[in-house]
Amino acid sequence: MTNPTDELPAPRVEDDALLEHLRRAAGAERLLVALDFDGTLAYFTEDIAASRAVDSAEAALETLAGLPNTWVAVISGRTMDFLHSAVDPHRRMLLSGSHGGEYDLSILGPEATSSGIELGSTQQTLLDQAVSATRDLVDRHPGAVAEYKPGGVAFHTRTLENPGDSDEALATMHAEFSALEGLRITPGEMVMECSVLTSDKGQAVTALINAVQPDVTLFAGDDVTDEHGLAVLGPDDLGIKVGPKDTVAPYRVADPDAMGAVLAQLAELRQG
Ligand SMILES: O=P(O)(O)OC[C@H]1O[C@H](O[C@H]2O[C@H](CO)[C@@H](O)[C@H](O)[C@H]2O)[C@H](O)[C@@H](O)[C@@H]1O
Question: Metal-binding as a keyword (predicted)?
Answer without folding.
Answer: yes
